[in-house]
């Protein structure tokens, strides 16, 4: 058994959480600010996908992001509660994609987002000291989870005021440009889009297109940030290294 690398600020919610309206349960991780136990402060909340990979090398698929290590370096005023939702393994593609792909399937993102917005978030807000307003609520993911995060801006902008879309694999969503062009985005969320030049041959172009669509929809300059990293590779190490800059933009500016 691998040795855990998670900091003491990370805990697992027990038992596994009911995913209504989806007929499943899922492990949920919490990374609380280091001063949570002694502070009376209420904190913003970030809902992140692929929880296995965020904090602990012992559970990660191919290395951890190390988010808890970064959060431990921040002041209490800069900190947030991180809610890590495990991916569903065989259900991952279905849960993170909004429209079925003719070959790969999928299409449960709306129900998955409803689970976060209407089941998980109310529980977190009622059991922990949170700032529940949309401007203090962030949805974040990478790869397929990057699609899921972006779709939070499309379908639930009234819930998620901040979106971290790392390396979104838009290629698997049929007519994805059309669907994000048709969305209303009211109220307007703040969106950070990240791509690396050594990911798929489509990644940079697709990230640029997504940002261009948001700007064409009238998003203010301050609410859309596109970052393309030369040499960036599609993996947890890349996303972990890029997390602090994106966190500062989304949560501290």
Distance between the termini: 41 Å
Provide the residue-averaged pLDDT. Answer: 96
Biggest sheet, open or closed, and with what strands and sense? 8 strands, mixed
Shape: globular
Please trace the helix and strand order, writing H or E for each element: EEEHEHHEHEHEHEH
User: DSSP strand (E) fraction?
Assistant: 15-25%
Spans where pLDDT lies below 50 across 5 or more residues: none
Q: Which architecture name does CATH use?
A: 3-Layer(aba) Sandwich
Give the total of beta strands. Answer: 8
Structure overview:
The chain is an alpha/beta fold and 253 residues long. The chain has a single domain, classed as Rossmann fold, CATH 3.40.50. It is built from seven helices and eight strands. The chain has helices at residues 67-71, 92-96, 109-127, 144-155, 176-182, 203-216, 236-252; strands spanning 10-18, 25-31, 45-49, 81-85, 137-142, 162-166, 190-196, 224-229. An eight-stranded mixed beta sheet has the order 1-2-4-3-5-6-7-8, sandwiched between helices. A hairpin with a 6-residue loop joins strand 1 and strand 2. The relative contact order is 0.13.
